[in-house]
Amino acid sequence: MPVSRKVDVSEGADAKGENDVSQRELQPTTPTSSGRGPLPRGDRMKTTPPPEGPPVEVGELAARAAAVLRKNDMGGWTRAAPNLYPHQWSWDSAFIAIGLAHLDVGRAAAEIRSLLDHQWKTGKVPHIVFNPDAPPESYFPGPEHWSSAADSPDAPSSPAKTSGLCQPPAHAIAVRRILEVAEKRGEGVAEAREFLREIYPKLLAWHRYLATARDPEGSGLVTIFHPWESGTDNSPRWSAALERVEVGEMPDYARLDLEHVPDPSERPTGPEYDRFIWLVEVNKRAGCDAAVLYDTSPFLVKDVLASAILVRANEALLEIAEVTGAPDGDRDTLRAWIERGRQGLDERWDPGLGLCLDYDLRVGEPLKTRTIAGFAPLIAGTLRTDRLRTLLEVLDSRAFLGHPDLRWPLPPSMGPEEPEFHPRSYWRGPVWPVMNWLLWWSLVKAGEKERATRLRDHGLAQLSDGRFGEYYEPFTGEPLGSDGQSWTAAVALDWLADQEEVSEKP
Ligand code: 2M8
Which contiguous run of DSSP H or E holds residue 444? Predict the structure, then answer.
């Protein structure tokens, strides 16, 4: 059934009062038990009151989300956030395109197109495409820091510079969804199909790069050379592997990220950042060449979350191949990658935790942590029903969204009872709306409709302050990091459209 309401994206738009749906308040379908009970380990946790003011109504929330995307629109591409992230980030753009699809199919396509215009000759999609107009002091490490990456014979020849890393491959999922949204809305379908045809070869090259240069072992799992490639930068997933990294001689640097957040505990620590910058140095010295990095990088890890996203992206690409009439050989390759990916994830299962674990190739050991990435088999669409059941139990347990002190039953990025959990520190505990979206989407695909609906509605309730934070304090619901984060606004738009579509069904 088509989503009938269109979000008005014109300047100053306020959809409030335009239709009945807009008058609904955002309420979770199931009340949360808790709200704000006493916090464990209170001495380590700074608490702040939850955001003031009544929740924003649905229509207004949609208009505000659209306004965030409009404000961050740099003309054919979207900066990840207004101040903290002035460039185009790879997986942010994928989620942003999903949100944009509800506003303008052509603009959603442009988001992915502009990113893939900077694809490397190897097929790699860079983790950042730098904004040539951003002032030099706006983000570190910026284009100057990455300039030597442009010397690589594999770097794109276009004028804008890119980083030499990559990020989780959510792009094919986004491209497939652009068509799905267009079909539901009954608008822009021909344009979307045409876009699928245009972009298919680039996506295939990207996935081939991941299946070969990033998986010479043929394990089905993606190797990363830097925690930034995981997108969950300072997650405790990487603590043990990072501790083994010895920082070598490198030029002094000044952090700029701390200038954009009110509280340094919301960002990675100094020693973590030193290792991040050292690993950038290692990547640059290797000419960003995966084969060289396999020999030289002190950080060499199989990332289960990126691998799970790749499984789903390969499924999406297989559907795109059907739509575009790609050769049979491509489809066989995609099917093989999907199977190998699921098998690889199966092998990384930890029965004790009931989660999947990353693997450190340098020492040949799993990286044992209880983080949201452990739900990789759920995200990949495991074919093992026993594992799916276990994953759902773990998700519902107090180790994740069943913790009684959570503001909303939404999964923190790290289990709240873990020693390394920190409720304000970036990927070490806060709730990330974009991860909620990924889990919601995976639950829908797994046929877990009720769970999915609860997650979506609580996720929207979390965003009903209308600020579209980068991430949220799990116990108080305070938005942290950057306000006006593009991918947060984008997932809100997708959820709102889904909520409306479902409510319209007889
Ligand atoms: C964060 O990462 C960047 C480095 O890539 C940073 O901390 O400076 C992560 O949350 C990452 O997943 C995200 O893509 C990026 C932009 O939103 O910010």
Answer: helix 433-445
Distance 14 CA to ligand 1 centre (A): 30
- Residue in 215, 233, 465, 473 annotated catalytic: 233
**CA triplet 228, 210, 130: central angle to 5 degrees?**
45
| Model confidence, pTM | 0.90
Ligand 1 contacts CB of residue 233 (under 6 A): yes
Name the residue among 34, 55, 42 with its Cα closest to residue 460: 55
Residue 187: what residue type?
Answer: E
| Cα-to-centroid distance, 233 and ligand 1 (Å) | 7
- Residues 149-180 have pLDDT tens digits of 778 899 987 666 999 999 999 999 999 999 99
Instruction: Give the pLDDT confidence of 474-499 residue by residue, as tens digits.
Output: 999 999 999 999 999 999 999 999 99
The percent of the chain in helix, strand and coil, each rounded to the nearest 5, is 50, 5, 45
Judge contact between 303 and 372, C-beta under 8 A.
no
Residue 57 gets which letter from DSSP?
Answer: B
Q: Catalytic residue at 470?
A: yes
Amino acid letter, 207: H
Could you tell me the distance, in angstroms and rounded to a whole number, from the CA of residue 470 to the centre of ligand 1?
A: 10
Type of residue at 499:
Q
Is any atom of ligand 1 closer than 6 Å to the C-beta of 92? Answer: yes
CB 292 within 8 A of CB 285: no
